[in-house]
C-alpha cells in the first residue's frame, strides 16, 4: 500500500477534485491519498465524489481553514 499527498490549498472548484482524480487514477487499489484544500465546497464535493466512484473516504476534517481528506482507492 502506498500513500500519496496532494497540496491543493488555494485552488478553487474543480481544481482539488481534478487533482484528486488524477492521483487516484495512478494509484493502486488499497492506496491512500491525502489531500489538503482551502476551498470550503470541497467537503461536500469529496463526499459525493467518493460515493460516486466507490472510493472510501477514511477521514474528513477541517482545522484552521484547511480541509484534509484521506481517501482509500477501491
TrEMBL record:
Gene3D superfamilies: TusA-like domain (3.30.110.40). Residues 5-73 form the UPF0033 domain. It comes from the Bacteria. InterPro entries: TusA-like, TusA-like_sf. Belongs to the sulfur carrier protein TusA family. This is Sulfurtransferase TusA family protein.
